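Pasting as-is:
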Amino acid sequence: MELDYHAIGLRIRRLRKANKLTQQGLAELSNQEPSNISHIERGATKLSLPTIVNIANALSVTVDDLLCDSVTESRAPFERMANDILSDCTHWELKIITETMLSLKESLRSGTKPLSAGDADTSPPYPTPAQNSTKEKKGSKNP
């Protein structure tokens, strides 16, 4: 199996930015040259195991978090990412995301192509919070 260096680099960049670090800052914390961090984030260089470990430690994540796109039995990083994505959602957003996830899962397992944005009317069958607040401002009652 070949490592997906581009995916590893994208994960490192996302985590670095989430930690509000510059490439220079990450380089210092992980004992790397700033130019090497740039190459890593672009997937333009292969990483040694010590480099991966140093970067993971600098970002306070596991090595699994960086390599999960290349490891076939790596659920935990994706589950943590999903939890992070959902952590600040409203009730309405959670409902829409959950319905979308269920539909996508069914589609993936059945082998059918999921709907793309242009294939169907994606407006919800009920008023959104933004629509509700607009109606309330105009003095209309919610259905």
